[in-house]
Structure formats: structure tokens, C-alpha cells
Structure prediction request, 86 residues.
Amino acid sequence: MSLDSKGQRARMLRLLAVVEHYERNSAVGAQLMRGTRYELAVQATDVNGDRCLFPACGCAEADCARRPPPGPQITWGGPKAGWRVR
Prediction:
């Protein structure tokens, strides 16, 4: 069953709450949760794009709300048109 982006983000937030709980309340929580945090980061980039920093960013909804706007994009228009900045 495939989740939509909103469902995936909600699941990532629930998982982040569990990770933070174990990090706070377990003697070895940070070590145990390192792999899970990495997995969250991978899933977030799959959902939100390569520039997503979740879970390190602190976005309230895991939706890249605090991500800076993308910079100018350069495209190749061919030998006659050359490079273009958008």
C-alpha cells in the first residue's frame, strides 16, 4: 500500500517522536537511534527532495517548510542559445 506524501510525512513525525523518546530516556539511546535517524533522513529526501534536512531541520510537519528557496537554475539551451539562468 502506497502512502501519499502527507501520510508519509505524518509517519516520519511519529517515528521521530519515538526516536527522540529513546534518545532522552535510554542510556544508549543516541547510539541505538543513529541508524533510525539516518533512515528518516533518507525517507525525507525521497518525499521532499535532495535538499531536505529532516529530522535535523525541525520542520513542524516534515514538509520542508523552512527550506530556503532554491537558487537560480542554469540550463543548457543548445549551441546557439547557450546557457540560461532561471
Notes: The chain has one domain: 5-85. The chain has a mean pLDDT of 79. Residues 5-85 form one domain. The chain has two helices and two strands.
